[in-house]
């Protein structure tokens, strides 16, 4: 929901309404969405259908399970019409006795009967034997003997490879045994075999994907190489602040006369100040030197120490090193003699950092403090409004945008975001009249501010929701005219081609263009990965997700990407093991 101008604070990372698009994308491509922000399972509802979901999973089975085809199987090959005391008949009798004990809650006795059934059953009677193992696993499950549950389910699956009940029971046992990878593989097979129709298996898949994602992201994020985002991203980030001293150009007195050459190294600044040199580098887009120059100012306790701390913290945030940014922000916030604009800006940035770390309480506290110490600072209300949208507090968001607009009537960004907030409120409330009013609001904003790319981008999102694809496409073209180097817009336009015309080639061409413009656009790689899953190119999808993981700007974003990657990987394993080929677009 955050603006493209505010990329660092977006839990989706890519700017624009990247957070929305990820879910829209899954809908576009006809894939069911797992709950929450976990993984999107991208094998659509076209997967193999089984008639009945395995709903009564606590009870043992009375008959042999369905065969590999999914329906019916062979039932009881030696049914009641056959000789009662054939070996199979005796095995069935032992199993039936076990079922009675099971229903009475006498699980140890049930296990003895199922064990007897297994030993009596002719080895060639695969389906019957698999049922006996599965029933014994159900009894072990009641006794919480998870290793035995997993072992018996494995026997059942070896005898009957697409035995959904046994696969799901084994998935639950693996979850208890903390074998997340094995659990994911089993539950993925269950989801596909049940055509994503069973809530229980979908919930378990989502849960284990989130756990795996979090676990992997924690490890990877700790040891990641800090990575400077693209110049487009950095400029877009700074453009979302107007009351921000550190991002303003150098004043005439601070600049040196010979600063004519914008290509090479920063020309020497007469005053020997690390901060002023850092500012010079910033104007030249030589961003890699800013942290080290700011550090010199801080170590020298120079006259721009507060500014240098804030500038260094900002670049730590931009390279995804929040733990290094926090002490710098804390220090600026506690400097009571520093310019109040610096302290308010530090509070906005720390509040946004807390939001990325999923600590909305601390985040709200920082924004409220910023409003207390600098009530005339329009940035505070603009950024707090975005936070409120993420927290789904739309009315409060609109109040903040109104305050921002009162303080800064020419803020096209705040006006566009206010429109989007009102639109989301109307859309989720399914109120046709207020949706119409919000859409008219967008028209007014783009008329009043024809050079605000964000206004067109947010309007395009709303038009896409309303299925007005042709007009949405025009809006994206306006964005591209205004900001030809904004990669995110190309990704959104690419997604639109898929939803509107199912034009995969055009969609991929636009997303490739986004990567050409900004090869650090994680949103583009993630989207491409999602499309490749749909096309059945799972290896290519995994490669794209891994590229996005290496570019992720927060641990939360990285965890989400790992979930997508693990979902794709589990599907490749299931495809190999069970010969389930994914449907392709």
UniProtKB/TrEMBL annotation:
Residues 50-87 are annotated as: Disordered. TPR repeats lie at residues 91-124, 344-377, 378-411, 453-486, 522-555. Residues 67-78 have a biased composition (Gly residues). One of its GO terms (molecular function) is mitochondrion targeting sequence binding. It is a single-pass membrane protein. It comes from the Eukaryota. Pfam families: TPR_1, TPR_8. Keywords: Acetylation, Isopeptide bond, Membrane, Methylation, Mitochondrion, Mitochondrion outer membrane, Phosphoprotein, Repeat, TPR repeat, Transmembrane, Transmembrane helix, Ubl conjugation. Gene3D superfamilies: Tetratricopeptide repeat domain. InterPro entries: TPR-like_helical_dom_sf, TPR_rpt. It is found in: Mitochondrion outer membrane. Signal peptide: none annotated. SMART domains: TPR. GO terms for biological process: protein import into mitochondrial matrix; protein insertion into mitochondrial inner membrane. The chain crosses the membrane at residues 23-43. GO terms for cellular component: mitochondrial outer membrane. Belongs to the Tom70 family. This is Mitochondrial import receptor subunit TOM70. It comes from Prunella himalayana.
């Amino acid at each position: 929901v955050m603006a493209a101008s505010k990329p660092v604070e977006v839990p989706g990372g890519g700017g624009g309404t990247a957070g929305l698009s990820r879910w829209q994308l899954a809908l576009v491509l006809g894939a069911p969405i797992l709950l929450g922000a976990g993984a999107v399972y991208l094998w659509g509802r076209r997967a193999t259908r089984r008639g009945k979901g395995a709903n009564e999973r606590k009870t043992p089975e009375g008959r042999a399970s369905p065969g590999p085809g999914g329906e019916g199987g062979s039932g009881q090959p030696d049914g009641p019409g056959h000789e009662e005391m054939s070996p199979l008949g005796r095995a069935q009798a032992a199993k039936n006795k076990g079922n009675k004990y099971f229903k009475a809650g006498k699980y140890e006795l049930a296990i003895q009967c199922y064990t007897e059934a297994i030993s009596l059953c002719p080895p060639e009677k695969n389906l019957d034997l698999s049922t006996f193992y599965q029933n014994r696993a159900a009894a072990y499950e009641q006794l919480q003997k998870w290793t035995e549950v997993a072992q018996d389910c494995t026997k059942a699956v070896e005898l009957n490879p697409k035995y959904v009940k046994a696969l799901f029971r084994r998935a639950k046992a693996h979850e208890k045994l903390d074998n997340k990878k094995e659990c994911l593989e089993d539950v993925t097979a269950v989801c596909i075999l049940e055509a994503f129709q069973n809530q229980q298996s979908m919930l378990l898949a989502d849960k284990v994907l989130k756990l795996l994602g979090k676990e992997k992201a924690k490890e990877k994020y700790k040891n990641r190489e800090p990575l400077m985002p693209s110049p487009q991203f950095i400029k877009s980030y700074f453009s979302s602040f107007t009351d921000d001293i550190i991002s303003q150009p150098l004043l005439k007195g601070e600049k040196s006369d010979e600063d004519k050459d914008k290509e090479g190294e920063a020309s020497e600044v007469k005053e020997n100040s690390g901060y002023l040199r850092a500012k010079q580098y910033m104007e030249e887009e030589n961003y890699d030197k800013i942290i080290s120059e700011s550090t010199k100012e801080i170590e020298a306790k120079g006259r721009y120490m507060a500014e240098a701390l804030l500038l260094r913290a900002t670049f730590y945030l931009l390279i995804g090193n929040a733990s290094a940014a926090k002490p710098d922000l804390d220090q600026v916030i506690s400097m009571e003699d520093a310019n109040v604009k610096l302290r308010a800006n530090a509070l906005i940035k720390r509040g946004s950092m807390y939001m990325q770390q999923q600590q909305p309480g601390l985040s709200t506290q920082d924004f409220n403090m910023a409003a207390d110490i600098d009530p005339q600072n329009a940035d505070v209300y603009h950024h707090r409004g975005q936070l409120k949208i993420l927290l789904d507090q739309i009315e409060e968001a609109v109040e903040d945008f109104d305050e921002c607009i009162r303080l800064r009537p020419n803020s096209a960004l705040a006006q566009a975001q206010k429109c989007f907030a009102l639109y989301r409120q109307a859309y989720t409330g399914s109120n046709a009249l207020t949706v119409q009013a919000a859409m008219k609001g967008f028209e007014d904003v783009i008329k009043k501010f024809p050079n605000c790319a964000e206004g067109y981008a947010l309007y395009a999102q709303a038009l896409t929701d309303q299925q007005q694809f042709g007009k949405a496409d025009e809006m994206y073209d306006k964005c591209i005219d205004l900001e030809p180097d904004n990669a995110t817009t190309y990704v959104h336009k690419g997604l639109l081609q898929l939803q509107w015309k199912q034009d995969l080639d055009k969609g991929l061409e636009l997303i490739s263009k986004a990567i050409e413009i900004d090869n650090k656009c994680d949103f583009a790689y993630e989207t491409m990965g999602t499309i490749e899953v749909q096309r059945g190119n799972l290896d290519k999808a995994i490669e794209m997700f891994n590229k996005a993981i290496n570019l992720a700007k927060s641990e939360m974003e990285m965890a989400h990407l790992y979930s997508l990657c693990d979902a794709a990987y589990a599907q490749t394993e299931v495809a190999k093991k069970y010969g389930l080929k994914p449907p392709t677009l």
